[in-house]
## 1
Amino acid sequence: MTSREGILLVVSGPSGSGKGTVIGRLLERRNDFVYSVSATTRAPRAGERDGVNYYFISRDEFEERISAGMMLEYAEYCGNYYGTPKKEVYDRLAEGKNVILEIEVNGAMQVREKCPDAVLLMIAPPDFATLEARLRGRGDNVPEEVILRRLEAARYELSQLTIYDYIVINGNNQIDDAADRIIAVADAERSRVARSGDFCERFFSCEA
Amino acid sequence: MTSREGILLVVSGPSGSGKGTVIGRLLERRNDFVYSVSATTRAPRAGERDGVNYYFISRDEFEERISAGMMLEYAEYCGNYYGTPKKEVYDRLAEGKNVILEIEVNGAMQVREKCPDAVLLMIAPPDFATLEARLRGRGDNVPEEVILRRLEAARYELSQLTIYDYIVINGNNQIDDAADRIIAVADAERSRVARSGDFCERFFSCEA
């Protein structure tokens, strides 16, 4: 049984987990997955396009949408709002697409409360040494204090693992394996009895 | 995260679901799955081999094994015992293999009670008309009463769907799709946070 609705798949992972790369690979390979574009009040950076990287909206508009219950989750970060517009997510799920929300732990908790059917998945590096090597390997110009802050953030995020349903390890040079695993999670979730509606009733409904 | 232990995968399905064919296809494709051979007290049929089709044991021996708690599940059917030897299943799981138990609904319930970690999966035909066509198509010599009994049994088995975790539809000529889906279920289950042990603790244990 494949559920007609898609799966709402919340994907989190610390900086250095490679989650963006893994999600990109997955989207290249399967057109039944779509990426949920967030809304933000921060200004577009060079090359960023409205509706592709983010929906760029004003602070007033963002706050109106919060009041109207139009955001599935949101957070304020460095003085700007970031959040997930609810309607687009629900429309794509109804079309049968699996929708990927790439959000951090606190946003994931908000989604869990509002959508008990959502599936929460954490992407993690295999171990601390790998995480540190990746964060330090990004360039020589990253100040030590930024690296330490990212490692501390990773510690917090991984400490919240128990609210997640699945953990997928993204080892070095194993992007395809990690993407495969996320695909397996979505495919399996679509076969859950709990998502099958009343299969038994439908099965026998065509009986003479 | 992939759990080190394999998944205990209980597969049920009515006569006509094609579960044997689907499991056979899966085993051809993935050598990290093994099929659990049942024990029985019935006599071997022509061509059946001990340890391959069944472990053929005496009634006394079977009852001793029940008393000693060595059977994971068992049932008496037409005057013969059928059951799953516990040790072999656990040994293979510990080796990291996914173990497939092809058993009926009542056996599945016994396994669920003894092994809360087991994953219960039902294979079903897409609809009643397909089921009936398959049962009638098996040969002209099957008496009508046997077909009606099988259809009634299917009704009972599918009515127990809610104790199962997953339902996989085996449509006509879709054996590979059904096998893929079962593989996805096992792969996803191995990535469950609940099976990952204390990932977070291990993650940081190599930190200076």
Note: Chain B touches chain A through 37 residues (CB under 8 Å).
## 2
Amino acid sequence: MPDVRITRRLHFSAAHRLARPEWDEEKNRHVFGDCANPNWHGHNYDLEVTVAGPVDAETGYVMDLKDLKELVNTRILDDLDHRNLNVDVPWLEGVIPSTENLVVCIWERLAPLIPPPARLEKLVLRETPRHWVEYSGE
Amino acid sequence: MPDVRITRRLHFSAAHRLARPEWDEEKNRHVFGDCANPNWHGHNYDLEVTVAGPVDAETGYVMDLKDLKELVNTRILDDLDHRNLNVDVPWLEGVIPSTENLVVCIWERLAPLIPPPARLEKLVLRETPRHWVEYSGE
Amino acid sequence: MPDVRITRRLHFSAAHRLARPEWDEEKNRHVFGDCANPNWHGHNYDLEVTVAGPVDAETGYVMDLKDLKELVNTRILDDLDHRNLNVDVPWLEGVIPSTENLVVCIWERLAPLIPPPARLEKLVLRETPRHWVEYSGE
Amino acid sequence: MPDVRITRRLHFSAAHRLARPEWDEEKNRHVFGDCANPNWHGHNYDLEVTVAGPVDAETGYVMDLKDLKELVNTRILDDLDHRNLNVDVPWLEGVIPSTENLVVCIWERLAPLIPPPARLEKLVLRETPRHWVEYSGE
Amino acid sequence: MPDVRITRRLHFSAAHRLARPEWDEEKNRHVFGDCANPNWHGHNYDLEVTVAGPVDAETGYVMDLKDLKELVNTRILDDLDHRNLNVDVPWLEGVIPSTENLVVCIWERLAPLIPPPARLEKLVLRETPRHWVEYSGE
Amino acid sequence: MPDVRITRRLHFSAAHRLARPEWDEEKNRHVFGDCANPNWHGHNYDLEVTVAGPVDAETGYVMDLKDLKELVNTRILDDLDHRNLNVDVPWLEGVIPSTENLVVCIWERLAPLIPPPARLEKLVLRETPRHWVEYSGE
């Protein structure tokens, strides 16, 4: 049974800033540069969700992409889109919303929801067209 | 003398929200939807600056692109990149930072700075890959 | 009052073939090449809808993009997406679904629906990333 | 000897539908949604062919890309481009042309043709810019 | 009869440098920066050829795109692709190969070849994804 | 501690040709085709640098992207951008500048410079949007 990876790309727009609350403005600016701007900045994020698994003999699907899109939208993107990642998202509380931390938090939330035998294989999170992160759960 | 249009694409990332201060939260949410989120959201903006004019016989240039890039960076993008468009930009004070209003404000600021015989011909401002505005000064 | 152009990009996937019913297979193949394949072929189309008009002083909008998206989806794309352009679309009956004919038919259907003072300004219809058409109603 | 992966991107346009002949229309529509439209729909597919192997000391090539392009065109794409994947392709007979099944069939056909020491390493097949599959032969 | 614009995107890769032979190295470096490197540099160029005209009632075409592609390839791109724009192209002799000069020279060569009633409407020449020029023959 | 991969995309433009000095023109043309043009040709290259490692608990970073960009620019791209890869680059001397050889040379130069615990994980070098290579140091 061939093991195929399928990917759905989705997107959201959000505000954030990078700063540690226990550091003063000067130190945050020194470490995080413009990303520490206290009045926030923001991005259009692209999220590429890759699910792997055997191809179902009846449908030819690893997983129905409409189900995957619905799952990511209702459990992840409805919380992130047009929101402030530092302030508005309960499951990011206390997390510095760097792209690295964000992709790990999305993984932990999404991986248990993929119906077996399919499995979450990889997440790619693009903060700009010139900068992205990947995570595979390890 | 042929009249050629040259374009340089640049980019910035910023936070904003759409809301009128004299309206209450409910009315802002009704008119502007998720864009009214009081904790802001943000975008990666692409700005395409088109300058038109005769081709210089010596250099083969309408305008030196390094000069154009420097001009847009120092007079426009340094004020917008990694900033909050509602709060941090003196020349946007009192303006609802819709893409339409933003492109007009950039035009008014940039057009007088292009050295003749070149002239600012068109601005394209992309808020997402699926939504953009154009303005030609009229 | 500045006149700004706003564009929303949408997409649909459809099957079609290029052939005149009164011509035989050989003539259709001669004129239209592989596009005449009697068992159809298909494309992912991108449609870029540009609306122009004055910027509303209260909202900063030329037109609410959510309204524009809803209009194009319900009146145009619901009829075209995952359909056969030669067979399934009443308002394309008798039309050879070349990209040129398709963009004109979409214009005629969409232009009267844009609420003044906004107006439909331009349509770009991309059949592949290497081939597209534009129409402005003239 | 370094082992490098080289990739060539190619494209084709085709019609298809997703449906099991032994199911009635209602069940096909329930399982496959709009993809079951009996009059077909279609896509612009992008195929990215990745070949891996040692770099030849004389040419600096893993494999001549012109040879790879010729091979994929004559053995794969000439059969798929401007065709109906359910009807026109002998080596897809009896296969539901989901993206998953299609990538596996292309792999089985293409892998034995890559001249050693190069080897087919990965195929990426994009059905839309928002949805793609990957297969590595396992 | 609607007047539609159709565009075909093509591409070529070439070497060039920007320098005036009557200027010394220092002056060329001062005016043209890194583009004056005496050992050349190069680009992947994208050329978008827009032809406008009435839609033929029989074919639904402004112009057969295969004919347009063939024309641009044989009369323009075969001379430019994998060539040195300063040295290898008879019809660029004595021209500083800035993007502006290049687009004008392509226009002058291509415009008379478009079969009426179609006409060459616009050329867009992209030197990088961040820099392009447009010319409409005036 | 999650192990995340971060990628920064950068770009440069360069001239090159593919040819072995000990072969005559005819043999070089036979093996390398148009790429052997003695007057050079050129490309816009995209370089995607992937660094992997644990996420720092204080900053949320695998590695500061500004540092990575600075490193790649000063140690790699300043030598390649607007240069001739066959002539101008000391660390490519004697190397046929195929994309495969180029990515390996960049790896060997860049890998020792990544500050632990981060490590260079993958390089993707795109010569055109239709052709790229990957290397992971093995």
Note: The mean pLDDT of chain E is 98.
